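As a warm-up, study this chain.
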Amino acid sequence: MAEPAVLLDQPAPHVARLLINRPLKRNAIDFDVREQMTVHLRGLLQDTSTRALVLGGVGGVFSAGGDVTSMQGLDEAKARARMQHIHVLCQLVAGARFPVVSAMEGIAAGAVVGLALLGDHVVGGPGTRVLFPFLRLGLAPDWGQLLTLPRKVGIGNARRILSRGEAVGGDEALRIGLLDELVADEDVMGAAVRRASELARLPQEAYSRMKQRLNHASGSLAEELAREESDQAVCLLGNDFQEGFAAFREKRAPDFVRQGGDQ
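Now compare it with the structure written out below.
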C-alpha cells in the first residue's frame, strides 16, 4: 500500500499536525497532497477538540513548492480546474477557526509559502530558504501571495523578492517580517508545536472573530465599529468571557480549554 501524501498526528494536546509526506520529491505539492490536506482539514474543522494546527513536511523540509511536472500539458479548462482545487485549500486554511502555525524547515518554496502566509504564525531557522520561483517559470504568483505577501512584508519588499527570485534566508526573512519567529534549525518543528500549544489555550470564539476581521479589513471606521459591536455582543454573552472575568477577579490565569468542554 502506498504511503499517504499527507500525514496527520497530534504532537500536543488539542494540536493537530499535517505533514507533507513526499520525501523523494522534497515534499513537492501535487494533486494528492492538496486533496489529502483538504480532506484532513475539513475533518479537523469539525473536531471541537482541535484548537490549533501545525503545517510542516517530513525529513526536515517544508516543501519544494508545486510539483512542476504536474503543471505541464494542461488546456485552459484543466488549468482553471487546477487553480480551483488549490483555492479550496487556500480558503480552508485562511478561514480556519483555529490558529495555523507553519514550520518552515529547510526549503520553503512557492505554493507552500502561500499556504503558510494564509495561516497565523510562521517559524523558521537561520538555515531556512524561502523561494519564490514563479517568474522564472513564466508564471504569476498564486496561492493568494499577491495579497498576503505585501500584507506581511510590505509592497516594496514583496516586489523585490518576487522579482529577483533569489532565496530569502532565515535571518532576512525575520527582518522583513516574513517569519514571525526565528529559532535554531533543529528546533523549528518543536518551536512550531510549542507556539501552537500556546495559541490553543486562547479563547476560540474571540480568536476566530479577530482572525476574520484581520483577514477581511473593514472599508471604513463605521463598518469596523459595526463589526466589533456584533462580535462583542456575542463574546460578552459567552462562556469564555465568564471564565476570563472569573480569572481576572480571582487573580489567576484563565482556562479557556476546560471552559470549552475539553479535558
